[in-house]
Amino acid sequence: MLQKALVLVFVVASVGSFIGCGSTANHYVYAALPAANQIIAYREDPNSGVLTQIAGSPYSVGDGAHSLALHPSGKFLYAANPGQAGSAESDISLFAIASSNGVLTEVFPRTTVAPNASLPQLLLMDPAGAFLYVGNAGSNNISVFSIDSGSGALTQVTGSPFAINAPLLNMQLTPSGNFLYVSVVSQPLGLILAFSVNAGTLTFVNGYPTDGLNPNGLAIDPGGTYLYAANSGSNSISIFSIGASGTLQEIPNSPLNVGYLVPVALILDPQGKFLYVANQGSSNVAAYSINATTGLPNVLTTTTTTGAFGTESNPSVLVADPSGRYLYVGNQGASAGIQAFSVSSGNLTVLSSYRVGNTPSSIVVLGK
C-alpha cells in the first residue's frame, strides 16, 4: 500500500505574477523522506526551475520525518517525527537555515508532543509565523506551539492539545489565520471540522460533511473565500464558501466529479486563478480554471492538453515556487522522485525529474 502523503504545502516569499522577469534570488526546495529519516535539499534556479542538490544534503532528521513547515522569516524549518517500525519518537525537529546557501543545521533538543499527544504527522504554520499547529495521528488531537521569533524555539500554548476525536487527514488555515479547517475520516461521508483561532487557541465552530469519502486534500484561495477538498475515496472535489464567522456552505454543483482516480492533493496558484489536483491513481495532475464569481473549477483546455497533465507514477504532493512559474510534484511510485513543471497560463510543461531514493511525503519551497 502506498504511504499516505502529506498534502499540505507552504511557500515563503512575496508572490509575483505567473509572468516573471529574471531573478538572482536564492530559492530552496526541501523534501521529507520518511523511510530514510532524512530531509533532502536543493537550490532552485529561479530562472529555469532546475534543482541542484545542496552540499551535505540529505540531512539526518528524526524517526519517520513526515511533514515539513517553513517559518515566514525564512530562518527556520520544522519537521514532524512520528517514529516508525515500532518506534514512537513523537517530536518536532527545528533546523536553522543558512541565508547564504540554504544549508540546514538542527537545533537540539527536539520538542516532544508527549505526554498528551503522539505520532505527529501534519504541520501547519500560521501566516504570521507566530504559531505551529501539529496534527497527531496517534492521539487524534492537535498540539499548538508558540514560536520564538528570534530562536525558533517552540512553547506549547495553554489548553493544547485540542481534541479532534477522529483520524486526521489534513489541516488548512485561512490566509488571515483566524480559522482552521481539519478534514477527518468519517462515515458515511468525510467531514471537515471548523475552528476559530485566537492566539493559537482553538474553539470549535461546527462540522461539515464533504459529500465524498476521505477528504485528503485541502486548499483555500488567496482571498479566503473558498475551501476545496479532494475526496480521494470518491474521486471528487467538494467546494465550500467560507463565511465571515468561519462557517462553510457547499456551493451549487459541488461536489465536482474529477473523472480521475484517487485525488489526494490540491493547490491553487498564487493568484487563485487555477487549481491543480494530484490524482494518485491516474498518475496525472488535473488543471482547472476558477470561476471568480462562483468559485467553481472548470476543466482547463489548452493547446497542450485538456484536463490533465501526465506525471510519473502516484503523484501525491504538490508545491509551487514563490514566483508561480514552477510547480513541483512529489511522486510515491517506483520513480520515488520530484518532478518539475514550468507553468504558463495554467498550462504545465515537464522540465525534469529528480530521483530521491525514497518516497517524499512533504515538500516546501523557500524563496528569498
Short characterization:
The chain is mostly beta strands. The chain has one domain: Methylamine Dehydrogenase, Chain H. It is built from no helices and 33 strands.
Outline the structure in words.
- This protein is mainly β and 368 residues long.
- It has one domain: YVTN repeat-like/Quinoprotein amine dehydrogenase (Methylamine Dehydrogenase, Chain H, 7 Propeller), CATH 2.130.10.10.
- It contains no helices and 33 strands.
- The strands form 7 sheets. Strands 1, 2, 3, 4, 5 and 33 form a 6-stranded mixed beta sheet that branches. Strands 10, 11, 12, 13 and 14 form a 5-stranded antiparallel beta sheet that branches. Strands 19, 20, 21, 22 and 23 form a 5-stranded antiparallel beta sheet that branches.
- The chain starts with 10 loop residues before the first strand and ends with a strand.
- 56% of the residues are buried.
CATH class: Mainly Beta
Distance between the ends: 38 Å
Low-confidence stretches at least 5 residues in length (pLDDT < 50)?
Answer: 1-21
User: Can you count the helices?
Assistant: 0
* Overall number of strands: 33
Structural shape: globular
Helix content: under 10%
Structural class from helices and strands? mainly beta
* Overall number of domains: 1
CATH architecture: 7 Propeller
